Amino acid sequence: MTWSGGETLTTEAVNDTLGRKGFAMLVLSFGLNEKAVIGDRDVVVTIVSVRGNRVRLGFEADRSIPIHRECVFDDIKRRGGVREGRPDKAVGK
Questions:
Q1: Do both 68 and 55 map to the same domain?
Q2: How many whole angstroms separate alpha carbon 24 and alpha carbon 13?
Q3: Which of 34, 51, 82, 86 to pair with 13, CA 20 to 30 A apart?
Q4: Which residues pair with 2 in a beta bridge?
Q5: Structural domain harbouring 53
Q6: In total, how many domains does the chain have?
Q7: pLDDT digits (tens, 9 = 90+) for 21-54
Q8: Which residues of 26-53 are buried (b: 16+ CB within 10 A; e: fewer)?
Q9: DSSP one-letter string for the chain
C-alpha cells in the first residue's frame, strides 16, 4: 500500500495499525484552511477552525456519500441502517 505522500507500508504494518486486516491510519498535520483529498476527490476535508482542543472540519462530497460522526454511524448501524426519526431514509439514500 502506498500513501499519496509516497510512503510504502507493508501488509504487516497495515494490519497492525488498526488491528483490522487491510485498514491503516494515516496521521497528518494540517494548518487552518488546508485540505485533505480522499479518493479521486470523492471527499475533500478542510480544516475550518481550531479553538483550543476543538477542530472544525468541513466536508465536500456528493450528497450520495453519507458522512457521520462515528457515534452517529454506530447508532445508524445498530438501528439497521435507518436514521432516527426518518424511517423512510436509509443510510446513503
A1: no
A2: 8
A3: 34
A4: 8
A5: 31-61
A6: 3
A7: 667 778 889 999 999 999 999 999 999 999 999 9
A8: eeeeeeeeeeeeeeeeeeebebeeeeee
A9: -B-TTS-B--HHHHHHHHSSTT---------TT-EEEETTTTEEEEEEEEETTEEEEEEEE-TTS----HHHHHHHHHTTSEETTEEEEETT-
